[in-house]
Amino acid sequence: MKDPVIIGIAGGSASGKTTLADRIIGEFTTEVALIRHDNYYKRQDHIPLPERPKVNYDHPSAFDTDLLIADLKRLGEGRTVEMPVYSYIEHNRTNEVIPIAPSPVVIVEGILIFENDDLVSLMDIKVFVDADSDLRLIRKIKRDVVERKRTLESVIAQYENFTKPMHEQFIEPTKRVADVIIPNGGYNEVGFGMLIDKIRAIISEKQRVSK
């Protein structure tokens, strides 16, 4: 069993994948690391703040996926990496970083992580979180207005111009590479329980082999 085991959790915006990833992390201490693709959005220093909301953040080109791939490979070599920190309010990567130490299991979470073949090739388990489009829109509105301090009008405009068409073009088709499809992600107790059991089995096997 290679080290680490990488689990990808993908799905549309506000599908429940972040909730699922957060709940998994809450079940473990140091055995599971979490890397979010959103943290690898490219820097937008060259774009004035008022213009940044007009960028298509739902397109693969918005992400520095090459850096994410390099970081996962470094973790595989037993090296600690520095995950970037992204500000949804500033629409830009900050100068802060979060150290991610090598762990038996690494979870990679994001809307487009199954779109890149090189990234997918590093994953051992691929989970797609599925949710009804109307439900995702409602969740997105609540999240972006309350947590990310955006106006209702801007959230709806982003959904119509970018989120919906990009989901149909780039995200929905990646269901075909998934090993498991979990409706509603972190809100699905059965799916959550199955993943927890699988991760515990992986950790137990790694501990047995290392003795």
List the secondary-structure elements in sequence, H or E: EHEHEEEHEHHEH
By CATH, the architecture is named 3-Layer(aba) Sandwich
CATH class: Alpha Beta
Number of continuous helical runs: 6
* CATH topological fold name: Rossmann fold
> How many β strands by DSSP?
7
- Write out the strand line-up for the largest beta sheet, numbering strands in chain order: 2-5-1-6-7
Low-confidence stretches: none
What can be said about the biggest beta sheet? 5 strands, parallel
Helix content: 25-40%
Shape: globular
Please tell me about this protein's structure.
The protein is an alpha/beta fold. The protein has a single domain, classed as Rossmann fold (3-Layer(aba) Sandwich), CATH 3.40.50. The chain contains six helices and seven strands. The strands form two sheets. It has a five-stranded parallel beta sheet, covered by helices on one side. A two-stranded antiparallel sheet has the order 3-4. Strand 3 and strand 4 form a beta hairpin. Helix 4 crosses helix 5 (152-171). The longest helix is centred in the C-terminal third of the chain and has 22 residues, at 189-210. It is globular, with a radius of gyration of 17 Å. The chain starts with a strand and ends with a helix. The model has no long low-confidence stretch (mean pLDDT 94).
